[in-house]
Amino acid sequence: MKDANLWPMEKRAPQKRRQETRAKLIAAAEAIIATDGFSGLRVEDVVARAQVAKGTFFSHFADKDRLMALIIGQEMERILGQMADAPPPTDIDTFAVRLAPLMDYMAQDRFVFDVVMRFSGAGAIETTELISHNFMRQVELFVTWIYALQGTVIRTDVDPVLLAEGIQAFAVQAMALKLCALDNTNKSHERLVTYLKPWLAAPK
To answer: CATH top-level class for 63-204?
Structure first.
C-alpha cells in the first residue's frame, strides 16, 4: 500500500509538468511573434520550437487564436497597468494621448485587432478572461480619470460610467478607421480626440 503522504506529491507532479509545457508553448509563440509578427504564427512552428507533439498543443489551447488571445491579453494588462500607475490626465487632449500605447498595441495590425474584438465580448461571440477583463478595467480606469476632471474640463450632466463606455466605443471606432480608411496617416489617438472633445467637454 502506498504511503498516503506521497499522494499530494504524485498529484502535483503532473500538474507541474502541464504548467511547464504550457509555459514552453507560450514562450515559443512569443519568440515567433517577436520575429515574424502575429501573422506569422503557425501551430506547427510553435510545437516544433517548444519540442512537443501537436496534440499537446491542443490539450492546452483550443486553437491558435486562443493562444494569441492569451498573449495579447497579457500585454494589454501590462500596458493598462502602466496607464493606471501614471497620474490622471489634465485635459481631454492628454486623455487621448494616455490611451495611445494601448490603442497602438491593439491596432498594430488586423490580426491583433481582430482577436481583440472577437475575444473582448463586445460582439457576444467569444470571450477570454484576460481581454474581456481588460475591457472592463479600461472603463473603471476611465471613470477615475473622469471623476478627476469633472467640474473643470469634463461635463457633469452624464453618468461617468456612460461617459467611460463612450470613450471605449470611440477608441474602437478610431482604431477601426486607422486600419480600414484609405487615409490612415493619422494615429488612432489623434482620431480619438476628435470624438472625445464633443463627448466629454463641459459646456461653456
So the answer is: mainly alpha
